[in-house]
Amino acid sequence: MAEILKPFDLVAIQEVNSDLSAIYAVMEFLPSHGIIFTDIAGNKERLCYIFKKSKIKLTSHVGELDIPPSDRRHYKMTFHDDNGDPCIHRFSGFDRNPYVISWKFKEHTFSTYNCHIYFGDEKEDDVLKFRRRILEIFSLVKWVTSKTNHKNGFVFSPNVMLLGDMNVPAMTKDDEVFKQINNKTFTAVDYTDYLTPYSNIKNDKTYDQLVIAKPFAEKMLLKTHGIFAWDNAMFNELWLDLKERFGKKAASKFQAYAKWAISDHRPLWCLFEFD
């Protein structure tokens, strides 16, 4: 894991265990990097940043995004039931508050929102939980947009990135989750044309996203990006053994092992050039 992280200047990690011994063990191999993380939240998870101390600097702006209960009445969406009748759902808070930090790279300042959006269930299995997932992303984008565009400048920096596990099933115009992050004010980095177009090791979902405020996207050049398919490079002996013993069932058995040994997600990476 340390070898995967080492080349990058800034890394946002989700699903860090409440027990920090494992992440500290990784940091032993990254002496040039710093680490900062949240307390535990939903599912006893932490959100974490790892950053190269010689390249990128922490500012004084560090916190979690939690929309006050008194303001949540403004964060609601209208859905339709099977009969086509409208029903209103109101935002009730994040399962895991996005972790907000502002950074400085040379003379540039920007803010990142490390997110692990509520998953719940697939649309056909539990409609209410699926709507909660959509509502979390809608509320995140609405809050950031309103504060960034406010004439009094209510955010530390208007240069904003939203990144992490947003549980986006598919990066298509018809996907209800994806619609919330790819709109008039934000643009999602499209990696679906990449050699490995999925961010989960089952090769069927685009859960992980890097979303950039459009004014910020115009200030920098996205030189290249992709998915780091670590599962194609690790545990080769295990894969060969499983393939020999289980044939077509080898893939599911390999994925079950890799999920707990490393992760069931692949890192999304981007290389930017600032003007």
The number of distinct β-strands equals 13
Any idea of the CATH class? Alpha Beta
* Strand arrangement across the biggest beta sheet: 4-7-8-9-11-10
| Helix and strand pattern | HEHEEEEEEEHEEEHEHHE
Measured as a percent range, the helix fraction is: 10-25%
Which topology does CATH recognise? Deoxyribonuclease I, Chain A
Average residue pLDDT: 93
- CATH-assigned homologous superfamily: Endonuclease/exonuclease/phosphatase
- Radius of gyration computed on alpha carbons: 19 Å
Strand content: 25-35%
Q: How does the helix and strand content classify structurally?
A: alpha+beta
| Integer tally of domains | 1
Instruction: Enumerate how many helices there are, as a single number.
Output: 6
Secondary-structure topology with pairs:
Blueprint: H1 2-5, E1 10-17, H2 21-27, E2 33-37, E3 45-52, E4 57-64, E5 76-80, E6 86-90, E7 99-105, E8 108-116, H3 127-149, E9 160-165, E10 186-188, E11 208-213, H4 214-217, E12 220-227, H5 236-246, H6 250-261, E13 268-274
Parallel strand pairs: 8-9
Antiparallel strand pairs: 1-3, 2-3, 4-7, 5-6, 7-8, 9-11, 10-11, 12-13
Helix pairs in contact: 5-6
